[in-house]
Amino acid sequence: MDLLKKSLFAFAALLCLGPGSWAETGAEVGWGAYLAGDHKKALELARPAAEAGDYKAQQLLGYLYATGDQVPKDEAKARMWLTKCAAQAKKLAAQGDVTGEQVLGWLYTHGFGGLKQDYAQALKWQRKAADQGGMWAQWELGALYQNGQGVKQDYVEAAKLYRASAEQGNPYAQSALGSFYQLGQGVKLDYDEALKWYRLAADQGFGDAEQAVGWFYQAGWGVKQDSTEGLKWARKSAARGNQWGQRLLGLFYQNGWAVKQDYAEAVKWLRKSAEQGNYYAQNELAGIYYNGTGLKQDYAEAAKWYRKSAEQGNADAQWMLGYLHQNGWGVEKNLGEAFKWYKKSSDQGNQWGQNGAATCYFWGWGVKTDDAEAARLWQLALDQGNAYAPNGLGYLYRVGRAGFPKDSAKALQFFRTGYERGDLVHSPGNLGGMYENGEGVTQDYVQAYRWYLISAAHEGPVRDALERLKALMTKEQVAEAQKLAAAAQPQPAAPEKKLASDVDEPGFRLKEDPQGFAVVVGIEKYKDLPQADFAERDAEAVRANLLALGYPERNVLLLKGSNATISGLRKYLDEWLPRNVTQGGTVFFYFSGHGAPDPKTGEAYLVPWDGDARFLKSTAYPVRKLYASLGALPAAKIWVALDSCFSGAGGRSVLAKGARPLVTKVEGTLPPKGKLVLLAAASGDEITGTLESEGHGLFTYYLLRGMGDAAKAGGAQLDARRLYDYLKPKVQDAARRQNRDQTPVLAGAPQERRP
């Protein structure tokens, strides 16, 4: 719901909940009908009061005529009634009347009643009303600070004003405050607080808040996941005509959450939301028509809703509208229009928009050819994981263009990347062409035929190539190529042995500590490095145990696999923790994956998913920096647990290809003295190991066993020295049984508070 409509709803509630002196006036009953959704009746009831001079009824009439919602739109009448309203509001505001001040501020905010839009005046009058305790003015003033209208955008000040209004029972402010806690704007991100304020607003029948509560239950944010409860709140919101509630209810039916999957019902509710202008619902409704999921495929209907969403700035809808124009599906084929919408989407950072715009720049579709811009956009899409961008870059190097000399090796690399990411259309076809012609590889008809087969179902020219090659090959060669192509197709995965350990599901639960924060990292399958067995299971188990120890779910960040990039580590260690950790709190950092030493300096690094052992300074996170960043936090206690090693000799450690293994001194990976306590898996010249029977790293398994035993024994405090004394001999003994040495390390104060 936009700010204008929200503010009108708020004013309506003010009249309906306000002093008895307004009881049974035309303004009140008119606003009551408006709140109930009957705008025609509202117009009828308010008109006599407006004609009698009631400025609150005049405001309602003016707004109804201005919007034309259920009543004929009439700008002249809207201007007349709002001008009359403004005249009275000015007089009352000058006398210090709170409602008059609030209404005058609203008129200045939107430029109604013959008043020029003037945020400075809006701020002035809303502040006057807010200073008198006017909860609606506090809410509107908060919105001005939130949006930076007439004042520098200030989420902290907006949150203060919303809170002042919310504590007086204003459901609009309660919902706004819930949103701030949900997003971490002006306050710390806190799903529990967000849900609390949303519930207060929802209990007053505020539709926006009701759908928010529905989302929280469906997603399990700050509450146990419960689709049935989420559905209940979605129905409440949708029944009020709330566009967000209607959209959410449509998604419940589309996905079969707590109800039988029903696309007819999904379309019904998404359409209701879309017709109110919800651009998310418009995009989702378009997607159903585009895919023909549960109903007849209809590109024209898809294009209609994609356009409505795209015109409101939805980047996903923009690139899809461009794609429809590129192919002439449901709309006239128009490459100029295709480029226009791709570009709009691309400018918002959408990877598919970037790929589409790059393609237009490369081929000159609707825009002048620009290889440099095409390459730039393809690279941006590639960095976001786009499956088709590698083919574009590969083709650029395959054919060779100005500024991009022909480079078959690079082309082959990009085409293989595209195929590995899921491009089964263009990249395999280009690989087939390179093997057929011997571009950068030895000419090989079998391999060419194999790659063409993989792409044959998608492109006519590739099918022609198959016929051409078949005439040049023996039956045996064709059979071999077919066998290779079949082997390349995705095969049903064999059932994996389900691993289970006694540390996976903690048998204890301690009281929640809202000041506890944790970052848990586990990387098993690296982008370009050997696998670190069980690292992600380690991280999942550590997270489960931290939650049981009292860390709030909202404060425990889990980074696994490809999400644990160098940018991710920097973002959460260097920004997220400093922004959220408070004085006296507790921080726990855990890392399971590869460590690496710098062969020249011996400095230790944590290697993220996209790390490169050859370029540690730019692609890995220095352990010394980790200690410095965590040590600078205002927390009272900081725990670091590392199930990695830094010798470069194996285990959970790597070394650049061609470099000699380096034995580092353990002191080189220890933190300086202070509040930080370190528990590391192995000494500097050792490698780490795993317990296959438990599906965990050896160190992590006994670390969690020790923490769990202490918690089950009733220990609200965990002694680091005792924990170390427990796990050290067990790790050493288990490692010896594997015919190697592994000695955990403890550094920091000998006794620390529980993690």
General description of the model:
This protein has 33 helices and eleven strands. The chain is globular, with a radius of gyration of 32 Å. The model is unreliable at 8-24 and 655-668 (pLDDT under 50). Helix 1 packs across helix 2, helix 5 (75-94) packs across helix 6 (98-110) and helix 22 packs antiparallel against helix 23. The protein has a six-stranded mixed beta sheet, with helices on both faces. The protein has a three-stranded antiparallel beta sheet with strand order 4-5-6. The chain has a two-stranded antiparallel sheet with strand order 9-10. The chain has 755 residues and is an alpha/beta fold. Strand 4 and strand 5 (604-606) form a beta hairpin. Helices cover 56% and strands 6% of the residues.
Describe the secondary-structure layout:
Elements: H1 3-17, H2 26-35, H3 39-51, H4 55-67, H5 75-94, H6 98-110, H7 119-131, H8 135-147, H9 155-166, H10 171-183, H11 191-202, H12 207-219, H13 227-239, H14 243-255, H15 263-275, H16 279-291, H17 299-311, H18 315-327, H19 335-347, H20 351-363, H21 371-383, H22 389-399, H23 408-421, H24 426-437, H25 445-455, H26 460-470, H27 475-488, E1 516-522, H28 535-548, E2 556-560, H29 566-580, E3 586-592, E4 595-597, E5 604-606, H30 616-619, E6 621-622, H31 623-631, E7 637-643, E8 676-680, E9 690-691, E10 696-697, H32 698-712, H33 720-737, E11 745-747
Parallel strand pairs: 1-2, 1-3, 3-7, 7-8
Antiparallel strand pairs: 4-5, 5-6, 8-11, 9-10
Helix pairs in contact: 1-2, 2-3, 2-4, 3-4, 4-5, 5-6, 6-7, 7-8, 8-9, 9-10, 10-11, 11-12, 12-13, 12-14, 13-14, 14-15, 15-16, 16-17, 17-18, 18-19, 19-20, 20-21, 21-22, 22-23, 23-24, 24-25, 25-26, 25-27, 28-32, 32-33
